[in-house]
Write a structure and sequence with these properties.
Helix content is 19%, strand content 35%. With 370 residues, it is an alpha/beta fold.
C-alpha cells in the first residue's frame, strides 16, 4: 500500500478554519457587548422614567394645593407637569378627586430622551385638623356675656350654602366651672340657647382646649396658609385679574357668595399675637396665638381657636361654626354688644375639608401602573 507523506497545504486549511472560528468568536463578543450596552441603556432610561414618575407624584403630595385640589368636585381632576431636579427626565399627570376625602394622583414619568416611560399612582387622603365641636363656645376662664349678644348651640346652615343635613343641637356654652359666668343684661341666660344653655365639664384644662387629636396648639402653625403678626385688621374679599387674590393677607374668602371667585377659598389663618378685627367678613380656620378683639360686625364662617381671651364690643362679631377661647392666662372673655356665636356643622366641615393638607394612606397608597 502506498502512504501519502506529503502534507503540504494543510496549514492553510487549518489557518482558514482558525480564522473563521476566531471571527465568529469576535463577532459574538461584539454582539453580546452591543446587547449588554443596549440593556444597560434601557435600564438607565427605565430608571430615569420611574424616578421622574415618582418625583412627580411625590411633589404633588409634598406641595399639596388645598386651594386648587380641595375645591375639586367629586370626579373632577387637574393636571400637572414638570421636570425632575437634575433635569434627567420629566413628568406629567393628574389629580382626581374620588370622594370628599380621597384623591388619586396619577404620574407618568419619561426618561431624558423620552424613549422610556413609567406610570405610578398614589392614593391621597385629606387630613383635616381634628376640631371637636362640643358647644357653640368652649372656654375655661371667666366669661362675661350680655348686651344684645346671643350664643346658640343649634346647628345652623349659612345662608346660600349647600350643606349636609343638620346635626343635633349642642350646648350654647361649655365651661369647666359655670360660676365663672357673669351676665350683663342677660337675666336667666336668655342670651344663650342650645341643647342646654350651659354645660359644665370640670375636666376642661388648658391642654384639653389646645390639643386637637395628635396636634398641639403650636403645631397648628404648620397648617397655616396665611401668617400675620396680629395687630389691627380689616378683612374683606379681593380679586386680581378676575381671580381670587390669595396673596392678599386680608382676603379670607367670600362667605356671602359661595359661587364667586373666592367662594371656595378657605384659608388657615395664624395670628402670632393679639388680633383686633374691625369689619368685614371671612371664612376658613382662624387661629390666634394671643387675644382676639372684634368690632364692626365682623362675620366669620368656620372654626375659631383663640389661645387667649375673646373680646367683642359694640356691634361685635358674628361667628358661624364654633369658638374655642382657651384663656390660657385665665383672663376674662367678654361676649357683649351685638356679638353672635352660632354652631354650624356645615361651616366647620367645609372649612376643615377645604383647608386640609393631603397625606398618603398609611397602607397600600402606592401602585406601579406600568
Amino acid at each position: 500500500m502506498r502512504t501519502v507523506t506529503n502534507e503540504r497545504g494543510v496549514a492553510l486549511a487549518v489557518s482558514i478554519f482558525a480564522l473563521v472560528v476566531i471571527g465568529a468568536l469576535v463577532a459574538g463578543a461584539f454582539f453580546m457587548g452591543m446587547q449588554e450596552q443596549r440593556v444597560g441603556r434601557n435600564t438607565i432610561q427605565f430608571q430615569q422614567a420611574f424616578s421622574a414618575a415618582e418625583e412627580g407624584a411625590n411633589r404633588q403630595v409634598a406641595n399639596w394645593s388645598s386651594v386648587t385640589n380641595n375645591a375639586l368636585a367629586n370626579g373632577d381632576s387637574v393636571t400637572f407637569a414638570g421636570t425632575v431636579v437634575n433635569a434627567r427626565g420629566w413628568y406629567r399627570g393628574s389629580i382626581r378627586r374620588l370622594n370628599d376625602l380621597l384623591f388619586f394622583v396619577r404620574s407618568e414619568g419619561f426618561s431624558f430622551d423620552s424613549a422610556a416611560r413609567q406610570q405610578v399612582g398614589l392614593l391621597v387622603r385629606l387630613r383635616p385638623i381634628e376640631f371637636l365641636v362640643r358647644a357653640a363656645l368652649q372656654t375655661q376662664g371667666n366669661l362675661k356675656i350680655g348686651g344684645s349678644s346671643f350664643i346658640d348651640g343649634h346647628d345652623t346652615a349659612p345662608l346660600g350654602w349647600t350643606c349636609p343635613p343638620l346635626l343635633p343641637a349642642m350646648p350654647g356654652i361649655l365651661i369647666n366651672d359655670s360660676t365663672k359666668i357673669t351676665t350683663s343684661g342677660c337675666k336667666d341666660l336668655v342670651c344663650v340657647d342650645g341643647s342646654t344653655k350651659v354645660e359644665e365639664d370640670s375636666t376642661f384644662t388648658t391642654d384639653s382646649l389646645t390639643t386637637f387629636g395628635d396636634v398641639s396648639f403650636d403645631d397648628l402653625e404648620q397648617f397655616a396658609t396665611i401668617w400675620i403678626p396680629g395687630g389691627n385688621r380689616k378683612i374683606e374679599p379681593s380679586q386680581t385679574g378676575g381671580a381670587c387674590n390669595t396673596a392678599d393677607l386680608n382676603n379670607w374668602g367670600e362667605p356671602n357668595n359661595p359661587a364667586g371667585v373666592c367662594g371656595d377659598y378657605f384659608p388657615v389663618i395664624w395670628s402670632e399675637g393679639d388680633l383686633n378685627i374691625n369689619q368685614d367678613r371671612g371664612q376658613g380656620i382662624l387661629i390666634v396665638n394671643g387675644k382676639l378683639d372684634v368690632q364692626g360686625g365682623f362675620e366669620f364662617y368656620g372654626p375659631v381657636i383663640v389661645r387667649g381671651a375673646l373680646d367683642t364690643q359694640g356691634t361685635g362679631g358674628h361667628f358661624n361654626g364654633g369658638v374655642i377661647a382657651a384663656n390660657v392666662n385665665l383672663e376674662q372673655s367678654d361676649v357683649l354688644g351685638d356679638a353672635v356665636i352660632t354652631y354650624s356643622s356645615c361651616a366647620v366641615i367645609k372649612a376643615l375639608q377645604a383647608s386640609a393638607p393631603g397625606s398618603l394612606l398609611t397602607e397600600r397608597s402606592w401602585v406601579n401602573l406600568y
